[in-house]
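We include this case.
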Amino acid sequence: MSTSSRVRRTLSSEIITLAHGSGGKAMRDLIDDVFVSVFDNDYLSPLEDQARFDLSALSAYGDRLAFTTDSYVVDPLFFPGGDIGKLAVTGTVNDLAVGGAKPLYLTCSMIIEEGLAVSELRRVVHSMKIAADEAGVVIVTGDTKVVQRGAADKLFINTAGVGVIASGINMSTNSAQPGDAVIINGYVGDHGAAIVDARGEMALENSIESDCQTLNELIDAMLKICPQARCIRDATRGGVATVLNEFAEASSVAITINETSVPVRHEVRGMCEILGLDPLYLANEGKLLAIIPGDRADEVLKGMLQHPAGQHSAIIGYVSEQPAGRVILQTGFGGNRIIDMLVGEQLPRIC
């Protein structure tokens, strides 16, 4: 039964109160008016405690399920280029897609602090709906909790995702081989820089927007060109440097990247110089790193450049045997330096 065929409950309050998490009428009004009315679909609208799927429909996409979950605690909730809702959808979709899966279904659980404006919550929910539609996924079930003032920071979101991996696609972080190429799909550090600017703590003036975007269509295009792609990973917390170290360690190979080949916006580089940050460690929310067989790299790059999410793609390095487990940066001055895994956190509450 869809929401259009039953009585629609309406939320009258302008702020979230503890009653909205009590399990009673106030909570049902919140769920009905704010969530179900926006996410409405045949899996969600029965309001059972679980979403139910036809296995034969899933198997039509491939022979393996992919399942992921992530939590989002970004501060502030709204930032140039996105918000916590868009971030929650795109981040979970991307975590499925980088494994070669076709993202299909998401969950949405929210921990809401007492006192949050209902208008802000509606804005987040509508943003999630737009992002889900653009990615071709459906939000099918969820949960809502309300905590007292001071027990959270406005809003935390957890999303889980289910996708299906097609037969013949086998990507893993331990699959990189000497001779492979390293490709990135655009400018690094935009999300981290946008969050710093949005917090307003540094009195910086710039127009940097988060790169928050879904990558499933780009990855699908890449895999159609090269199903033998070794591994793909989205460079979120810890940035490019951390992902490359994960590849190098898992595959027991060396990865060398050329500093001048890594796309970095002038504004991001300038901000990093002022604050003593390194763009290679800044978080991204719409950037992937791919390890591609060397003889297919140019073809894959050409295809990526034709996609909106890959129009600034570049080959930034290569894989070799030694020194195994290391990432080496060839600097613009002609020297080399080792790029280690991020220790600690450059910027907390980034996603």
Observations:
- The chain has a mean pLDDT of 94.
- Residues 118-135 form the longest helix (18 residues).
- The chain has nine helices and 13 strands.
